[in-house]
Amino acid sequence: MRPGCTVMSEYTTHTGSVPVDELWLRDWAQEGLARLEQYLARQAEFSAFLSARGALDSDHGDGAAAS
Question: Which CA distances in Å does 35 have to 27, 43, 49, 58?
Answer without folding.
Answer: 12, 12, 21, 35
